TrEMBL record:
PANTHER family in alphabetical order: CITRATE LYASE SUBUNIT BETA, LYASE BETA SUBUNIT, PUTATIVE (AFU_ORTHOLOGUE AFUA_4G13030)-RELATED
Protein name: (3S)-malyl-CoA thioesterase
Residues in HpcH/HpaI aldolase/citrate lyase domain copies: 9-214
Gene Ontology biological-process entries: oxaloacetate metabolic process
Organism of origin: Antarctobacter heliothermus
Length: 282
């Protein structure tokens, strides 16, 4: 399955230094894992964490996409992380705090693997289009905690302070065919709040959500997967449009609403996503 078209409903952060967490992740029903060498690993453990992660990745993680988040090149660990990740059995390398295409160029010079970028600063938001257009970029991850810090914004359930940045990154990702995953929800015991934020992200066009705890997985998986009613409508739209086309008509009507080519294209994409989700469980 192509890295850009596979599901990313649930993307769980796992500290690269924690052997127990690395092992537990193999059994979780998640679409992707971000193996974190950056924020989740203390400075004293960063060097050893590379070896711990390399050993863990030498064994299968099933159909889950394996993404390694390295430290930035402005730190003493960044370049060594990149060189180590380049030879690990992972699917992509995630660079933190990307603000310029030159940062991605520096990483691309050290690896042939697909690149992902953390979008977590005001400068990153303003450069989202150029970043998404980078020829090696396959995915973007919203770093909303860091963005909130940089904005000096207050927490709001509606994420009003975040909406401009989130929107700019969604537009850039969709313009260039790049996967985009929403930021984390910190209150991992607040199911209602997580549900609301997942629905908001899905409605905006996000492909999935980054998670900080396994307890959040089921809610994210459900929110970012097509529902049975959506799948049923998609099938009926396709069937109706095909019947209309046979009769020489350019539009159809389903449930009292016009169905055109663009609706059929959306319906086909939805069915393809549902099939890809089902394939992950095989």
């Amino acid at each position: 399955m192509d890295l850009r078209t596979r599901p990313y409903r649930s993307v769980l952060y796992i500290p690269a230094s924690k052997e127990r967490a690395l092992e537990k992740a193999r059994a979780l029903p998640i679409d992707a894992i971000i193996f974190d060498l950056e924020d989740a690993v203390s400075p004293s453990e960063k060097t050893a964490a590379r070896d711990t992660l390399a050993e863990a990745l030498s064994r299968p993680y099933g159909n889950r996409t394996r993404i390694v988040r390295i430290n930035g090149f402005d730190t003493e660990w960044g370049e060594a992380d990149a060189r180590a990740a380049a030879v690990m059995d992972c699917d992509a390398i995630l660079l933190p705090k990307v603000e310029t295409t030159e940062q991605l160029d520096a990483l691309a010079a050290l690896t042939d693997k697909p690149l992902w970028s953390m979008m977590e600063t005001p400068a990153g938001m303003l450069a989202a289009n150029q970043i998404a257009a980078h020829p090696r970029l396959a995915g973007m991850v919203m770093g909303t905690n860091d963005l909130a810090k940089e904005l000096n914004s207050r927490f709001r359930a509606d994420r009003l302070p975040m909406l401009t940045g989130l929107g700019l990154c969604v537009l850039a990702a969709k313009a260039h065919g790049v996967t985009i995953v929403d930021g984390v929800y910190n209150a991992f015991k607040d199911d209602e709040g997580l549900q609301a934020e997942c629905v908001q992200g899905r409605d905006m066009g996000m492909d999935g959500k980054t998670l900080i705890h396994p307890a959040q997985v089921a809610i994210a998986n459900a929110a970012f997967a097509p529902g049975s009613d959506e799948i049923d409508l998609a099938r009926r739209q396709i069937d109706a449009f095909e019947e209309a086309a046979k009769a020489g008509q350019g539009v159809a009507v389903v449930d009292g609403k016009i169905v055109e080519n663009l609706h059929v294209e959306t319906a086909r994409k939805m069915l393809a996503k549902a099939e890809a989700i089902a394939a992950l469980a095989e």
